[in-house]
Design a protein that fits this description.
Metallo-beta-lactamase, Chain A, 5 helices, 14 strands, 7-stranded mixed β-sheet
């Protein structure tokens, strides 16, 4: 069976590294992270923040192939209208912007806004997408995305802390193949962001319950993203720390397959 390539174009929270250069971090410094976004295959983006267009260029991706952008919420590190405008420039067929049902966003030429109804699954060729409300600043219209690609389920859960009850209930029994999880905060207790972002202790508490509910299993691949470098150990040390709990740490330019 063919596999779908997923590319972490950016893995940072909002405290962008001053060490960014015109190439991906893993070529010189995995702690130099750009704004969080991911590319599914060659045509579907998750988020389009302030660094996204540059990250696509660094990865050698063709803007014209992008057909869909799934917006997790409307903070600038996840949605920058000027980056969307760069991606859609010169095209005739509109690019689809997927967002929460009640989202307010600026009008961008050559785009079609699709407001996702809660609980509805949308078909896009070889995959489906479903929006699930997220535990984050409500004014940013946050949602996670549950994708199913050729029978494999993938949850992208950045930004957000504990799952909302209705989202947790909808995920029960999902049997995810892949989970990309917010890991903004480091390995310590007492962070004021706990209502909107995960720390490593929060993730450790969460995982057994997700397994009990059938959301994840022993074979689920779990990657940490949306990482704030100022709140974490350096990347290599963080990888060793995360591995104790069976977790992997994403970095800019990382490619995985689903």
């Amino acid at each position: 069976m063919d596999k779908t390539k997923l590319t972490f174009l950016g893995t940072c929270a909002a405290d962008f590294s001053p060490r960014l250069k015109g190439e991906f971090a893993h070529r010189f410094d995995r702690d130099a992270r750009r704004s969080s976004c991911m590319l599914i295959g060659e045509s579907r983006l998750i988020d389009c923040g302030v660094h996204c267009a540059e990250s696509l260029e660094i990865a050698g991706k063709d803007f014209a192939k992008i057909t869909d952008i799934f917006i997790t919420h409307f903070h600038r590190d996840h949605f920058a209208p000027e980056c969307v405008e760069r991606i859609v420039a010169g095209r005739e067929k509109p690019l689809r912007l997927w967002c929460r049902r009640d989202a307010v966003l600026p009008e961008i030429p050559h785009t079609e806004v699709i407001r996702m109804e809660e609980g509805k699954r949308y078909a896009l060729g070889d995959m489906t997408a479903e929006g699930m409300d997220a535990n984050h600043d409500e004014a940013s219209f946050p949602q996670h995305y549950l994708f199913e690609i050729r029978g494999k389920k993938f949850l992208y859960a950045c930004d957000g802390a504990w799952f909302l009850t209705r989202t947790y209930n909808r995920l029960k029994g999902a049997g995810l193949s892949l989970l990309v999880l917010d890991a903004t905060c480091g390995d310590y207790a007492g962070d004021y962001r706990m209502a909107e972002h995960n720390s490593l202790p929060m993730i450790r508490l969460m995982l057994p319950s997700l397994k009990t509910a059938g959301i994840i299993g022993d074979a689920t691949e779990i990657y940490l993203s949306h990482i704030a470098p100022s709140l974490h150990l350096p990347h290599e040390q963080l990888c060793m720390l995360a591995a104790v709990d069976g977790l992997k740490v994403a970095y800019d330019g990382m490619e995985i397959f689903l």
